[in-house]
């Protein structure tokens, strides 16, 4: 496919390198047996994804991705892996049954279906319609606190409920 | 990045989404299943951002506003917030199940009662 392109620009090389790393790490999350290694692969995947957001000019969301996902969520995952002590007998050896075969078949079917029905008609779109600074903190803040202020408030309520729920679940006796 | 087509971003998002879906079906460790769900959420975030940049939606209520390309970014922000809440609660549930039953195999968690 790459050879079929007339010329390949440095931007495209950058994107392909980032996308290849992200795809490899995504496969690593699923394929590796040790959950800590899966978590590390996911950290790298989220970090690379932040740079892909930068290539989309969504700077604020890329930084938020690094802060929220690789910073907060993955630390939470690693704490839970540590607390569950999943290193010894809890690393489940994959059973030799039909589940991986069925799972991969379903995945391939899903991939083929979405690729043929959704992606192929969009092959021709190359024109960028958003304005250059659409991902700047200024633009996002302005939109978030004017047009989207009610969803923003609802999200804050959701986070509050999440905090209460996780504290409740962390009690010794439920 | 002026010369990367929309298709490439969508292809990466689709690959990550299907990988996460396969992981949810195949893996037996609930923490890894959660990681795969995070992977799927991030794939959708990437798709939102790519669409926001290349073909912004013109919603009926937003038609008079010039900033129609902000909708995808707003969705990504809300998905991130919901994912953070979901991870906090979900990992708490996994910890509670582990304390209660001392084993966390998804295949064995078929009983709805505690």
Mean pLDDT of chain B: 83
Order of helices and strands of chain A: HHHHHH
Query: How many domains make up the 3D coordinates of chain B?
Result: 1
Flag low-confidence runs of chain B: none
Structural class of chain A: mainly alpha
Give the CATH superfamily of the domain at 1-94 in chain A. Answer: NADH-ubiquinone/plastoquinone oxidoreductase chain 6, subunit NuoJ
Shape designation of chain B: elongated
How big is the Rg of chain A?
21 Å
The largest β sheet of chain A comes out as: none
Largest sheet of chain B: none
Largest interface: A-B, 88 and 76 residues
Rounded to the nearest angstrom, the distance between the terminal CA atoms of chain B is: 52 Å
Quaternary state of the chains: heterodimer
Text of the CATH class of the domain at 1-94 in chain A: Mainly Alpha
Strand percentage of chain B lies at: under 5%
CATH architecture of chain B: Orthogonal Bundle
């Amino acid at each position: 496919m790459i050879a079929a392109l007339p010329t390949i620009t440095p931007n495209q090389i950058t994107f392909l390198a980032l996308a290849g790393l992200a795809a490899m790490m995504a496969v690593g999350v699923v394929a590796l047996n040790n959950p800590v290694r899966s978590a590390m692969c996911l950290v790298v995947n989220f970090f690379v994804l932040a740079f892909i957001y930068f290539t989309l000019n969504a700077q604020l969301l890329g930084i938020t991705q690094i802060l929220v996902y690789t910073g907060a969520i993955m630390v939470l995952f690693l704490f839970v892996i540590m607390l569950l002590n999943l290193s010894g007998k809890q690393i489940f050896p994959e059973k030799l049954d039909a589940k991986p075969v069925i799972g991969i078949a379903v995945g391939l079917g899903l991939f083929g279906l979405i690729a043929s029905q959704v992606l192929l008609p969009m092959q021709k779109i190359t024109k960028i319609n958003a304005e250059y600074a659409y991902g700047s903190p200024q633009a996002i803040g302005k939109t978030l606190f004017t047009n989207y202020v009610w969803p923003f408030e609802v999200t804050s309520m959701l986070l509050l409920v999440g905090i209460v729920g996780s504290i409740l679940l962390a009690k010794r006796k439920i | 990045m002026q010369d990367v087509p929309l298709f490439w971003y969508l292809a990466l998002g689709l690959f990550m989404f299907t990988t996460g879906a396969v992981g949810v079906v195949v893996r037996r460790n609930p923490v890894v299943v959660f990681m795969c769900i995070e992977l799927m959420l991030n794939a959708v975030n990437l798709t939102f951002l790519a669409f926001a940049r290349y073909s912004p939606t013109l919603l009926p209520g937003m038609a008079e506003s010039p900033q129609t390309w902000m909708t995808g970014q707003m969705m990504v922000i809300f998905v991130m917030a919901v994912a953070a809440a979901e991870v906090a609660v979900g990992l708490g549930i996994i910890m509670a199940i582990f304390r209660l039953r001392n084993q966390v195999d998804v295949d064995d968690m078929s009983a709805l009662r505690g």
